[in-house]
Each structure stands twice: as structure tokens, then as C-alpha cells.
């Protein structure tokens, strides 16, 4: 009764190596069925890690959620508003001229101090996104949730690579019961960057 009920089962042995060829064929077949993320839209990448590499300077890593980025592009780190230029790119640990949405990407960016950036920030094209401390969203409560959602209930919000404390503001009614869904406004304790149709998760605070 789960999403794995029709998944292939391929026995393998780490001792004899038996079954690995079939495992790799099955895995390659599944990968070939994955629809690539479209590279249209404005480049935006939630930052997973930031560090300084000798001879290069500041590097940020993550997986772009939209658009593409190339060497020489101007970028901005939000919500700080720090601007820099792409000096070097790696895609899946290989040097490349362009990185696209859905690819594991490392960006070497100039004129930026790595200590000024942290996980959860977003790197994007300047002038398109503004940090916000609230957003309107569709919220669905899992049927097995032990609690209902009441107005202004405190929650922990996860989106992209960031998490932030906030409250759920009900736009209709007094509660959202398990299994129900509604349009709500999420009020945050600090500014983040979030785009249209981005997915998010809220966790109730025990």
C-alpha cells in the first residue's frame, strides 16, 4: 500500500558480487525514465554549503531549482543582498561552463566572503527575487496528524535548504483537521526567499 509496492527487487551479494550487473541495469532503466527539470526561468539555487577553496575563493554548492547559470554571470546572495560574479563552475564535480536546474552544482563566486553566506540562503539573478517574512500557500494536513491546525499555531517551516520558525494564519474557519487542506498565510520570524509553486513542509512544535 505504499509508493514502493511495485518497485523492482534485485538481490545482490557483497561477498560474491552476484546480482550487481542486474542491479546496475535496473537502476539505469529507472534513471532513463526520470523527466529532466526544465532549465527555463530565472536561475535560483538554495545554498547547501559554503566554503573557501585555496586558489579560488568562495564556493557555494546546491541544486538549482530553476534556470541556468554560466561563467561570467552576475549573481546575488539573498536575503543579504551580496553580489558577485561567477568565476568557475563544477557540475557533478566536473568543470563546466554552464549548470542547469536539477544538477549538483558548485559555484565559485568573486567579491564574496564565504563567512557572510550560510546554508539556507539563496543565490540567484539580481533584481528578480525579494526576501519576505510571509507567504500565502496551500496547506494539507496529513490524515495521521495527531493534532489539528488552529489559528496562529506555532510551526517550524522547511523550504529549499532553510528552516525557520513561524505561525499559520488561517484565512477561513477556526481549524484545519487532519486530512483537510486550506489556503493559509505563513508568518515567519525572519526573511527567506521563496518562489511560486515552491514546496514546503511545516512541523508542529511539541
TrEMBL record:
Enumerate the Gene Ontology biological process terms.
Answer: selenocysteine incorporation
- Quote the CDD domains the UniProt record gives: selB_III
Is Nucleotide-binding included in the keywords of this UniProt record? yes
Q: Name one Pfam family in it.
A: GTP_EFTU_D2
Q: Where is the Translation elongation factor EFTu-like domain?
A: 57-124
* InterPro entries, sorted: Beta-barrel_SelB, EF-Tu_GTPase, EFTu-like_2, Transl_B-barrel_sf, Transl_elong_EF1A/Init_IF2_C
Q: Which UniProt keywords apply?
A: GTP-binding, Nucleotide-binding
Q: Does the keyword Protease apply?
A: no
Query: Which is an annotated GO molecular function term of this record?
Result: GTP binding
Q: Where is the Selenocysteine-specific elongation factor beta-barrel domain?
A: 144-204
Provide the protein name.
Translation elongation factor EFTu-like domain-containing protein
Give the source species.
marine sediment metagenome
Instruction: Tell me the organism's taxonomic lineage.
Output: unclassified sequences, metagenomes, ecological metagenomes
Amino acid at each position: 500500500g505504499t509508493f514502493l509496492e511495485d518497485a523492482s527487487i534485485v538481490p545482490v551479494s557483497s561477498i560474491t558480487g552476484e546480482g550487481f550487473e542486474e542491479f546496475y541495469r535496473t537502476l539505469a532503466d529507472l534513471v532513463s525514465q526520470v523527466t529532466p527539470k526544465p532549465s527555463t526561468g530565472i536561475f535560483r539555487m538554495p545554498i547547501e554549503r559554503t566554503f573557501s577553496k585555496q586558489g579560488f575563493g568562495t564556493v557555494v554548492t546546491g541544486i538549482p531549482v530553476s534556470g541556468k547559470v554560466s561563467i561570467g554571470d552576475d549573481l546575488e546572495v539573498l536575503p543579504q543582498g551580496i553580489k558577485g560574479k561567477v568565476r568557475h563552475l563544477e557540475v557533478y564535480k566536473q568543470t563546466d561552463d554552464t549548470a542547469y536546474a536539477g544538477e549538483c552544482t558548485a559555484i565559485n563566486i568573486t567579491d564574496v566572503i564565504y563567512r557572510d553566506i550560510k546554508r539556507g540562503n539563496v543565490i540567484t539573478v539580481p533584481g528578480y527575487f525579494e526576501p519576505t517574512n510571509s507567504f500565502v500557500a496551500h496547506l494539507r494536513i496529513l490524515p495521521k496528524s495527531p493534532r489539528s491546525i488552529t489559528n496562529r499555531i506555532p510551526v517550524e517551516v522547511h523550504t529549499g535548504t532553510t528552516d525557520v520558525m513561524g505561525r499559520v494564519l488561517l484565512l477561513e474557519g477556526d481549524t484545519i483537521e487532519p486530512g483537510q487542506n486550506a489556503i493559509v498565510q505563513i508568518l515567519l520570524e525572519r526573511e527567506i526567499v521563496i518562489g511560486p509553486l515552491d514546496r514546503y513542509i511545516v512541523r508542529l512544535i511539541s
